[in-house]
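1st attempt posting a full record on here, be nice pls
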Amino acid sequence: MNQQIVTFDKMFWGVRDGGIYLCEDLHTSYWQEYEGGYLNNNSMIEKSKTLIDTINAWHSKEAGLQVRG
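the predicted structure (as tokens):
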């Protein structure tokens, strides 16, 4: 997991407007032998979910919504 997260943190901000950042082998986020596991906060999947919430949570109609992160 660590290499996916470190690489994302360093490289994503260099993607040009309209560009795409891809990360392969995300299924390993669910495998304990790769430092993952279901709902493991240290996995790339959970980091991705948090980023999605950060970008889109303001659309929620729930009062006082707190974005994870």
